[in-house]
Write a structure and sequence with these properties.
The chain contains no helices and 11 strands. It is 0% helix and 55% strand. The mean pLDDT is 95. It is mostly beta strands. The N and C termini lie far apart (37 Å).
């Protein structure tokens, strides 16, 4: 599986960005997908997940502000980020993995895309 992320950039606090991740090399519609982020000097953390049937989940830090979605016809997963805060600044990575029970196991990684929230 190859993943290509895009859509990052510089945005002011309170602004919005939409990240995209195009997948190739596998049957995308059967994949569980996720977005992670990694801020400088910190560990990579899970931001959002979406199952192959479209169920989504978010940590409290982004719940209500971020929305993950997928378009199986375009082999693409999206991350809509609204009401952005400076603490959302990080490199964002898409991932093609799988759920076993309630736990998401990361698999293939895309290259990151930088998101900077600053005035």
């Amino acid at each position: 599986v190859q993943l290509q992320a895009s859509g990052g950039g510089l945005v002011q606090p309170g602004g919005s960005l939409r990240l995209s991740c195009v997948a190739s090399g596998s049957i995308f519609s059967r994949r569980d997908m996720a977005w992670y982020r990694q801020a400088p000097g910190k560990q990579r953390t899970l931001v959002a997940t979406i199952t192959s049937d479209g169920s989504t989940n978010y940590p409290d830090s982004v719940k209500g502000r971020f929305t993950i979605s997928r378009d199986n016809a375009k082999n693409t997963v999206y991350l809509q980020m609204d009401s952005l805060k400076p603490e959302d600044t990080a490199v964002y990575y898409c991932n093609a993995g799988r759920f076993i029970g309630n736990y998401y196991y990361p698999g293939y990684w895309g290259q990151g895309t930088q998101v900077t929230v600053s005035s």
